[in-house]
Amino acid sequence: MILRPYVARSQGLSKWGGEVGLTKHIFKVGLAKDSPDSAIKALNAATHAGQADWKLIAKEQIDDLAESDIIARIATKEKMVDPNYYPRLQGAKGIFKVKIENAEAHMLMKRAMDCRSLSVP
Q1: Cross-strand bridge partners of residue 10
Q2: Mean pLDDT in residue range 24-28
Q3: Mean pLDDT of 30-44
């Protein structure tokens, strides 16, 4: 079975995170059984974490990996927002706050790797 992990962002949740002192860099990580686009529609229909403005940021295609495994992998580098501590999240799991330093380092490394693949005359 092919599963598709995805990353989604809600502007409303990001704004709330910035206001309460978490960070505005908050993302939802999940696993879609059919397509990430339909998973985003389901998040919006269910007002996941109290928000109905989820947008797809990234998606992948993998085999045989559980959502709990994906969350555990990400939790080694980024902090998962505790859904029991923040009632506004309404028990939603898989929501992470990303340190801006980690995002910047990732973007810089990606740019450096892209430059290495270019041929310079």
Answers
A1: 54
A2: 91
A3: 90
Q: Is 105 helix (H, G, I), strand (E, B) or coil?
A: helix
Tokens linked to 13: 């949740």
- Residues in CB range of 17: below 8 A, 6 or more apart: 23, 24, 25, 26, 81, 97
45-86 tens-digit pLDDT: 999 999 999 999 988 877 677 788 888 888 888 889 998 898
N-term to C-term CA, the chain: 45
Task: Note the pLDDT of residue 1.
Answer: 60
Reference 9, options 114, 73, 96, 68; nearest CA is: 96
Which DSSP state fits 46? T
pTM for this one? 0.77
- Location of structure tokens 């990606």: 110
Give me the half-sphere count of Cα atoms (radius 13 Å) on the Cβ side of residue 35: 3
What SS3 string covers 9-44? EEHHHHHHHHHHCCCCCEEEEEEECCCHHHHHHHHH
